[in-house]
Write a structure and sequence with these properties.
Elements lengths: L1 H44 L9 H20 L2 H32 L1 H13 L4 H11 L4 H13 L4 H11 L3 H16 L3 H25 L1 H24 L1 H9 L1 H25 L4
Helix pairs in contact: 1-3, 2-3, 4-5, 4-9, 5-6, 6-7, 7-8, 8-9, 10-11, 10-12, 11-12
Length: 281
Protein backbone atom coordinates (compact mmCIF):
# COMPACT_ATOMS: atom_id res chain seq x y z
CA UNK A 1 0.00 0.00 0.00
CA UNK A 2 2.87 2.34 0.78
CA UNK A 3 4.37 1.84 -2.68
CA UNK A 4 0.99 2.34 -4.31
CA UNK A 5 0.54 5.59 -2.39
CA UNK A 6 4.01 6.77 -3.38
CA UNK A 7 3.31 5.88 -7.02
CA UNK A 8 -0.02 7.71 -6.98
CA UNK A 9 1.60 10.75 -5.36
CA UNK A 10 4.32 10.73 -8.01
CA UNK A 11 1.76 10.47 -10.80
CA UNK A 12 -0.28 13.30 -9.27
CA UNK A 13 2.79 15.53 -8.98
CA UNK A 14 3.77 14.73 -12.57
CA UNK A 15 0.29 15.60 -13.86
CA UNK A 16 0.25 18.78 -11.79
CA UNK A 17 3.67 19.85 -13.06
CA UNK A 18 2.61 19.09 -16.62
CA UNK A 19 -0.52 21.20 -16.24
CA UNK A 20 1.43 24.04 -14.66
CA UNK A 21 3.98 23.88 -17.47
CA UNK A 22 1.23 24.03 -20.10
CA UNK A 23 -0.50 26.92 -18.35
CA UNK A 24 2.72 28.90 -17.98
CA UNK A 25 3.68 28.22 -21.61
CA UNK A 26 0.25 29.30 -22.86
CA UNK A 27 0.31 32.47 -20.73
CA UNK A 28 3.86 33.26 -21.90
CA UNK A 29 2.99 32.84 -25.58
CA UNK A 30 -0.21 34.81 -25.20
CA UNK A 31 1.55 37.68 -23.45
CA UNK A 32 4.29 37.71 -26.10
CA UNK A 33 1.68 37.94 -28.86
CA UNK A 34 -0.21 40.61 -26.96
CA UNK A 35 2.91 42.73 -26.41
CA UNK A 36 3.97 42.46 -30.05
CA UNK A 37 0.55 43.25 -31.48
CA UNK A 38 -0.19 46.06 -29.05
CA UNK A 39 3.21 47.62 -29.68
CA UNK A 40 2.66 47.47 -33.43
CA UNK A 41 -0.80 49.02 -33.07
CA UNK A 42 0.37 51.76 -30.72
CA UNK A 43 3.31 52.65 -32.95
CA UNK A 44 1.02 52.88 -35.97
CA UNK A 45 -1.26 55.19 -33.99
CA UNK A 46 1.81 57.32 -33.30
CA UNK A 47 2.60 57.23 -37.05
CA UNK A 48 5.83 55.31 -36.34
CA UNK A 49 6.08 52.40 -38.76
CA UNK A 50 8.83 49.97 -37.76
CA UNK A 51 9.14 46.21 -37.65
CA UNK A 52 8.49 44.76 -34.17
CA UNK A 53 9.51 41.20 -35.03
CA UNK A 54 12.63 41.33 -32.88
CA UNK A 55 11.02 43.26 -30.03
CA UNK A 56 10.22 40.26 -27.84
CA UNK A 57 13.70 38.62 -28.09
CA UNK A 58 15.29 41.98 -27.27
CA UNK A 59 13.01 42.40 -24.25
CA UNK A 60 13.81 38.90 -23.03
CA UNK A 61 17.55 39.51 -23.35
CA UNK A 62 17.28 42.82 -21.50
CA UNK A 63 15.11 41.26 -18.80
CA UNK A 64 17.54 38.38 -18.19
CA UNK A 65 20.59 40.67 -18.25
CA UNK A 66 19.16 43.23 -15.85
CA UNK A 67 17.71 40.54 -13.59
CA UNK A 68 21.02 38.68 -13.31
CA UNK A 69 22.92 41.93 -12.78
CA UNK A 70 20.57 42.95 -9.98
CA UNK A 71 20.90 39.49 -8.44
CA UNK A 72 24.71 39.59 -8.50
CA UNK A 73 24.82 43.13 -7.08
CA UNK A 74 22.15 42.85 -4.38
CA UNK A 75 21.98 39.06 -3.90
CA UNK A 76 18.20 39.43 -3.79
CA UNK A 77 16.06 37.20 -5.97
CA UNK A 78 12.97 39.30 -5.25
CA UNK A 79 14.59 42.49 -6.55
CA UNK A 80 15.94 40.66 -9.59
CA UNK A 81 12.51 39.25 -10.44
CA UNK A 82 10.83 42.64 -9.98
CA UNK A 83 13.31 44.40 -12.29
CA UNK A 84 13.09 41.61 -14.87
CA UNK A 85 9.29 41.82 -14.83
CA UNK A 86 9.36 45.60 -15.21
CA UNK A 87 11.45 45.26 -18.36
CA UNK A 88 8.80 43.00 -19.91
CA UNK A 89 6.01 45.51 -19.27
CA UNK A 90 8.13 48.54 -20.14
CA UNK A 91 6.86 48.90 -23.77
CA UNK A 92 3.24 49.09 -22.63
CA UNK A 93 4.03 51.76 -20.06
CA UNK A 94 6.09 53.87 -22.48
CA UNK A 95 3.61 53.60 -25.36
CA UNK A 96 0.54 54.28 -23.21
CA UNK A 97 2.25 57.41 -21.85
CA UNK A 98 3.17 58.54 -25.36
CA UNK A 99 -0.40 58.00 -26.59
CA UNK A 100 -1.87 59.99 -23.69
CA UNK A 101 0.48 62.88 -24.36
CA UNK A 102 -0.30 62.78 -28.06
CA UNK A 103 -4.03 62.83 -27.30
CA UNK A 104 -3.62 65.81 -24.96
CA UNK A 105 -1.57 67.70 -27.57
CA UNK A 106 -4.13 66.84 -30.25
CA UNK A 107 -7.00 68.20 -28.15
CA UNK A 108 -5.11 71.39 -27.38
CA UNK A 109 -4.73 72.15 -31.11
CA UNK A 110 -8.44 72.09 -31.92
CA UNK A 111 -9.36 75.74 -31.16
CA UNK A 112 -6.79 77.15 -33.59
CA UNK A 113 -7.63 74.45 -36.11
CA UNK A 114 -11.35 75.26 -36.05
CA UNK A 115 -10.68 78.97 -36.50
CA UNK A 116 -8.45 78.24 -39.50
CA UNK A 117 -11.05 75.93 -41.06
CA UNK A 118 -13.80 78.46 -40.41
CA UNK A 119 -11.75 81.16 -42.14
CA UNK A 120 -11.34 78.97 -45.22
CA UNK A 121 -15.07 78.24 -45.28
CA UNK A 122 -15.88 81.95 -45.07
CA UNK A 123 -13.67 82.56 -48.10
CA UNK A 124 -15.86 80.17 -50.12
CA UNK A 125 -13.95 76.91 -49.90
CA UNK A 126 -15.65 73.57 -49.37
CA UNK A 127 -15.07 71.43 -46.29
CA UNK A 128 -12.67 69.13 -48.12
CA UNK A 129 -10.66 72.02 -49.54
CA UNK A 130 -10.63 73.79 -46.16
CA UNK A 131 -9.31 70.67 -44.45
CA UNK A 132 -6.68 70.20 -47.17
CA UNK A 133 -5.39 73.78 -46.93
CA UNK A 134 -5.29 73.52 -43.15
CA UNK A 135 -3.50 70.16 -43.12
CA UNK A 136 -0.64 71.56 -45.22
CA UNK A 137 0.46 73.98 -42.47
CA UNK A 138 -0.94 72.31 -39.34
CA UNK A 139 1.41 71.12 -36.58
CA UNK A 140 1.72 67.49 -35.59
CA UNK A 141 -0.23 65.45 -34.64
CA UNK A 142 -3.13 67.44 -36.12
CA UNK A 143 -1.68 67.43 -39.63
CA UNK A 144 -1.18 63.64 -39.50
CA UNK A 145 -4.75 62.87 -38.50
CA UNK A 146 -6.37 65.38 -40.87
CA UNK A 147 -4.16 64.20 -43.74
CA UNK A 148 -5.22 60.63 -43.02
CA UNK A 149 -8.89 61.67 -43.14
CA UNK A 150 -8.33 63.38 -46.51
CA UNK A 151 -6.39 60.39 -47.83
CA UNK A 152 -9.24 58.05 -46.92
CA UNK A 153 -11.70 60.45 -48.56
CA UNK A 154 -9.67 60.49 -51.77
CA UNK A 155 -9.69 56.69 -51.81
CA UNK A 156 -13.49 56.70 -52.02
CA UNK A 157 -14.50 56.61 -48.36
CA UNK A 158 -17.26 59.13 -47.58
CA UNK A 159 -16.15 62.11 -45.54
CA UNK A 160 -18.55 61.29 -42.72
CA UNK A 161 -17.12 57.78 -42.45
CA UNK A 162 -13.56 59.12 -42.52
CA UNK A 163 -14.43 61.52 -39.70
CA UNK A 164 -15.94 58.61 -37.76
CA UNK A 165 -12.62 56.81 -38.16
CA UNK A 166 -10.87 59.86 -36.71
CA UNK A 167 -13.23 59.70 -33.74
CA UNK A 168 -12.32 56.04 -33.20
CA UNK A 169 -8.58 56.67 -33.42
CA UNK A 170 -8.67 59.70 -31.09
CA UNK A 171 -11.58 59.10 -28.71
CA UNK A 172 -12.24 62.30 -26.80
CA UNK A 173 -15.11 64.67 -26.25
CA UNK A 174 -13.51 67.41 -28.36
CA UNK A 175 -13.00 65.11 -31.34
CA UNK A 176 -16.54 63.80 -31.02
CA UNK A 177 -17.99 67.32 -31.06
CA UNK A 178 -15.85 68.45 -34.00
CA UNK A 179 -16.47 65.36 -36.14
CA UNK A 180 -20.21 65.46 -35.46
CA UNK A 181 -20.34 69.13 -36.42
CA UNK A 182 -18.32 68.60 -39.60
CA UNK A 183 -20.45 65.60 -40.58
CA UNK A 184 -23.69 67.51 -40.06
CA UNK A 185 -22.35 70.55 -41.90
CA UNK A 186 -21.18 68.40 -44.81
CA UNK A 187 -24.60 66.77 -45.07
CA UNK A 188 -26.79 69.86 -44.57
CA UNK A 189 -24.61 72.53 -46.17
CA UNK A 190 -25.58 75.16 -43.60
CA UNK A 191 -23.57 78.01 -42.15
CA UNK A 192 -20.77 75.88 -40.78
CA UNK A 193 -18.15 78.61 -40.32
CA UNK A 194 -20.05 80.37 -37.54
CA UNK A 195 -20.68 77.09 -35.72
CA UNK A 196 -17.02 76.16 -35.93
CA UNK A 197 -16.03 79.53 -34.49
CA UNK A 198 -18.44 79.11 -31.58
CA UNK A 199 -17.15 75.61 -30.93
CA UNK A 200 -13.58 76.93 -31.02
CA UNK A 201 -14.43 79.55 -28.39
CA UNK A 202 -16.10 76.94 -26.20
CA UNK A 203 -13.18 74.51 -26.48
CA UNK A 204 -10.70 77.27 -25.68
CA UNK A 205 -12.72 78.26 -22.61
CA UNK A 206 -12.86 74.64 -21.46
CA UNK A 207 -9.10 74.27 -21.91
CA UNK A 208 -8.65 77.43 -19.85
CA UNK A 209 -10.73 75.93 -17.04
CA UNK A 210 -8.81 72.66 -17.31
CA UNK A 211 -5.55 74.58 -17.03
CA UNK A 212 -6.79 76.27 -13.88
CA UNK A 213 -7.68 72.87 -12.43
CA UNK A 214 -4.20 71.58 -13.25
CA UNK A 215 -2.64 74.58 -11.49
CA UNK A 216 -4.82 74.14 -8.40
CA UNK A 217 -4.03 70.43 -8.18
CA UNK A 218 -0.29 70.88 -8.83
CA UNK A 219 0.41 70.81 -5.09
CA UNK A 220 -1.40 67.50 -4.74
CA UNK A 221 0.56 66.02 -7.62
CA UNK A 222 3.84 67.21 -6.17
CA UNK A 223 2.95 65.75 -2.78
CA UNK A 224 2.20 62.44 -4.49
CA UNK A 225 5.62 62.43 -6.18
CA UNK A 226 7.40 63.40 -2.94
CA UNK A 227 5.61 60.80 -0.83
CA UNK A 228 6.20 58.14 -3.48
CA UNK A 229 9.92 58.90 -3.79
CA UNK A 230 10.51 59.33 -0.05
CA UNK A 231 10.94 55.59 0.74
CA UNK A 232 13.45 55.18 -2.08
CA UNK A 233 15.39 58.29 -1.03
CA UNK A 234 15.37 57.11 2.58
CA UNK A 235 16.63 53.68 1.51
CA UNK A 236 19.47 55.28 -0.43
CA UNK A 237 20.40 57.51 2.50
CA UNK A 238 20.39 54.58 4.94
CA UNK A 239 22.59 52.56 2.59
CA UNK A 240 25.32 55.16 3.12
CA UNK A 241 24.68 55.69 6.84
CA UNK A 242 24.24 52.06 7.91
CA UNK A 243 25.13 49.69 5.04
CA UNK A 244 25.03 46.58 7.24
CA UNK A 245 21.37 47.05 8.19
CA UNK A 246 20.35 47.79 4.60
CA UNK A 247 22.23 44.69 3.45
CA UNK A 248 20.21 42.57 5.87
CA UNK A 249 17.05 43.98 4.34
CA UNK A 250 18.07 42.64 0.93
CA UNK A 251 19.60 39.36 2.07
CA UNK A 252 17.24 38.16 4.79
CA UNK A 253 13.81 36.76 4.03
CA UNK A 254 12.14 39.15 6.47
CA UNK A 255 13.80 42.14 4.83
CA UNK A 256 12.74 41.00 1.37
CA UNK A 257 9.17 40.60 2.60
CA UNK A 258 9.31 44.13 3.97
CA UNK A 259 10.60 45.45 0.64
CA UNK A 260 7.80 43.64 -1.16
CA UNK A 261 5.24 45.10 1.26
CA UNK A 262 6.65 48.61 0.72
CA UNK A 263 6.43 48.16 -3.04
CA UNK A 264 2.84 46.92 -2.76
CA UNK A 265 1.85 49.86 -0.57
CA UNK A 266 3.53 52.24 -3.03
CA UNK A 267 1.41 50.85 -5.88
CA UNK A 268 -1.77 51.05 -3.79
CA UNK A 269 -0.98 54.63 -2.81
CA UNK A 270 -0.36 55.68 -6.41
CA UNK A 271 -3.62 54.05 -7.47
CA UNK A 272 -5.69 55.81 -4.81
CA UNK A 273 -4.02 59.17 -5.44
CA UNK A 274 -4.88 58.89 -9.11
CA UNK A 275 -8.47 58.05 -8.22
CA UNK A 276 -8.77 60.89 -5.72
CA UNK A 277 -7.17 63.55 -7.90
CA UNK A 278 -8.68 62.10 -11.10
CA UNK A 279 -5.50 63.10 -12.94
CA UNK A 280 -2.17 61.64 -13.93
CA UNK A 281 0.30 61.70 -11.04
Amino acid sequence: MIYIGIALAGISMSVALCLIQQIVTYAWLRYRSSVTQQTQTSLSELFVFIDTTHLWPALCCMSVTIGLSAWFVSDSIVLAMVLAGLILVLPRIVLSTALRRRMALFDSQWPDALMAIAGSLRSGASIGLALKSFAEDAPTPMCQEVSLVLREHRMGIPLNQALAGLNQRMPSESVELVTALLAVGNASGGSLAELLERLSINLRARQHVTGKIDVLTAQGKMQAWVMGALPLVLLGALSFIDPASVELMFLSQTGQLMLGLVLLLECVGIYWLRRILAIEV
